[in-house]
């Protein structure tokens, strides 16, 4: 689980360079990175919005799956 400082740094990087923030979070050869790169090329603001979505909301989905995993296996 990421600390608040790590999340803050990821969000700051995503605002400055959206594809870099997604690359650090998901990897450079992922669909998320390519989508963010295309959106940033088309417009800076859509790239930022998508990068923040990937960093903040997809991270919550993964954490909720980890929390529910012991309940599903029982």
TrEMBL record:
Keywords: Membrane, Transmembrane, Transmembrane helix
Protein's UniProt keywords contain Cell cycle: no
TM helices/strands, residue ranges: 33-56
InterPro entries in UniProt: PMP3
Annotated Gene Ontology cellular component terms: membrane
UniProt subcellular location: Membrane
Protein name as catalogued: Hydrophobic protein OSR8
């Amino acid at each position: 689980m990421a600390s608040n400082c790590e999340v803050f740094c990821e969000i700051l990087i995503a605002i400055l360079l959206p594809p870099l923030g997604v690359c650090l979070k998901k990897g450079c050869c992922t669909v998320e990175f390519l989508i963010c790169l295309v959106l940033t090329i088309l417009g800076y603001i859509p790239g930022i919005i998508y990068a923040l979505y990937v960093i903040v909301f997809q991270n919550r989905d993964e954490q909720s799956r980890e929390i529910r995993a012991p309940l599903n296996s029982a």
